[in-house]
Amino acid sequence: QQQVKQSPQSLIVQKGGISIINCAYENTAFDYFPWYQQFPGKGPALLIAIRPDVSEKKEGRFTISFNKSAKQFSLHIMDSQPGDSATYFCAARAYSGNTPLVFGKGTRLSVIA
Amino acid sequence: EPEVTQTPSHQVTQMGQEVILRCVPISNHLYFYWYRQILGQKVEFLVSFYNNEISEKSEIFDDQFSVERPDGSNFTLKIRSTKLEDSAMYFCASTEGLNTDTQYFGPGTRLTVL
Question: What pLDDT is recorded for position B99?
Fold first, then answer.
């Protein structure tokens, strides 16, 4: 119930291509869904986040698509660049006070030239 | 830009020893968290802290763990008697206040228990 399932575990994309990472959840109390980017040796950094009242949110090359009925959300990275190579974590949180984030297992993205 | 800082960056200790991991949250933030990440695995919640008391803790956060805000800036995680399985990256995070979304993470402390 508290899990967030993330796939794929790893992803290799050509420079300029689209990277797509998917997440699914079961807890209907979740209503805040952030994506974090983590470079080796660094802490996770918030990339983009969405609430279930919208189906899509775009910030630059990064887009979250959200499907409330399917309880799924995904991150799309357009025009992927080598500098995007990192581990990406989806997460979810029930919006009641400051409840902790529940993270997916992460996707290691490699963008090759 | 303000950031969460953590010290030390790497801590090596012998099994059974006590360790204290230190964090300085962003200065106007009120809510603090500790998470850990075992190598190659997902980030897991340990404990949250607000108004000088624990708000929520996970099943990982047993009697061997404690947290403290000893002064107006530091937030510490103590592990009383370390085990091999405590080896992980420990991340501190903070949020500005109640019902605010963004959790800002520090760079982490890598704890190695030998």
Answer: 66
d(CA B49, CA B61): 13
- Residue A43 contacts residue B108 (beta carbons within 8 Å): yes
In the numeric block, the tokens 């982490």 are attached to B108
Q: Work out the minimum CA distance from B23 to partner chain A, whole angstroms.
A: 13
**Are B31 and A98 within 8 A, CB to CB?**
yes
At residue A64 the predicted structure's pLDDT band, cuts being 50, 70 and 90, is very high
- CB-CB neighbors (< 8 A) of B56 in chain A: 99-100
List of chain B residues whose C-beta atoms are within 8 Å of the C-beta of residue A36: 105
The rounded distance, in Å, linking the Cα atoms of A100 and A106 is 17
Q: How far is B106 from chain A (nearest CA, A)?
A: 6
Q: Predicted confidence band at A97 (pLDDT cuts at 50, 70, 90)?
A: low
Q: Closest by alpha carbon to B49, among B62, B34, B63?
A: B34
